[in-house]
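Escalated from tier 1: tryptophan holo job.
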Amino acid sequence: MGERKVILSGNRPTGRLHIGHLFGVLQNWAKLQEDYETYFEIADWHALTTKYRDTSSLKSDIEDMVIDWLISGISPEKSVIFVQSHIKQHAELHVLFSMLVSLSRLLRNPTLKEYVAEREALKLKTEKKTLNRIAQNISQKILKEDEERKEVLEGKIKEFILKELEDNLFSEDSEVPYGDIVNYGFLGYPVLQAADILIYRAHVVPIGKDQLPHLELTREIARRFNSLYGEVFPIPEPILNEFAKVPGTDGRKMSKSYNNTILIGEDAESLKKKIMSSYTDPQKIRKNDPGHPDTCPVFHYHMIFNRENAENIKTECIKGVRGCVQCKKEIFSKMDTFMEPYREKRKKYEEKRDLVWDIIREGDKKAREKAEGTMEIVREKMKINY
Ligand code: TRP
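Tier 2 regenerated the structure:
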């Protein structure tokens, strides 16, 4: 146990997970727990950085996500499963780390920039809607009688207000860059993540490619701390999650925000609905049209859940001797069978959600012990152990 290397990874609690998570992340975690001392964190404080207004679903989102971890092979005997906000030491280390990072370093964080761009686009979109309403109202009221002039005026009003909005939104001279879009917590998101990782003195961090900039900052903070106060932290290395090999039902990347997911242990009825309405090759309209399986998500599902027949299906599809409905019915039946054990296991926890919290409490205890151990060293090295 002692000499095994430490892994930490985590997720923001987003509720039930999909088969993209299963193949891309969870199966990998389950393998890693055999060879490493593994910590898996439910990053609820990270979730709050953007979802702080309505927190009513947070608790059940945590339960649902952890249930999916458990039924996908993450074992509480082999891994430490814990909730971030239960380990207050993360907050302490976050505060100490916040002294070691410059403001401009955080403002360069690409995740922050993406978030700001998204929010700005969203804001502009809603403001354009408001603008349309205003322009219509004004022109209707003033120029009820004259249709032609109404349209001209409406256009002019829109043009004027839109320019004002855009100037305002993208102006360079606001006091602080991103000042009113980003809260303090979100700015510090990667610093908190560094605390998550380093408090367990993790050597390895399995993550998606999008998280690499956060690991880079973690490494910088670890080096900075070590050089200022003495060697405490290993410099953690990433292991990249497997590239998403399961497409969503619309052929794009499987993602909750695209509404194209298939859940781990999805129930039969909704699985059927999702498969039968799934996107297929748009050029294959009739059964006998030749198809293009390589770009068809249903064929991808055959490759995963019906491997032994996939070659045959491919040939038939290309030749135009197999229809999409048949293809979908067959893959539904295979996937339905695949889901069965997951549904069974999920049921146990659904019936008694307290089981999940019992597991978390056990994990919390182990995580807290390890985290406090690190903090004792950190306080001592920083000479703040008075
Ligand atoms: N930011 C990560 C994500 O959105 C979640 C996370 C929080 C994390 N703390 C972590 C991942 C520590 C790895 C290590 O996916």
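The radius of gyration is 26 Å.
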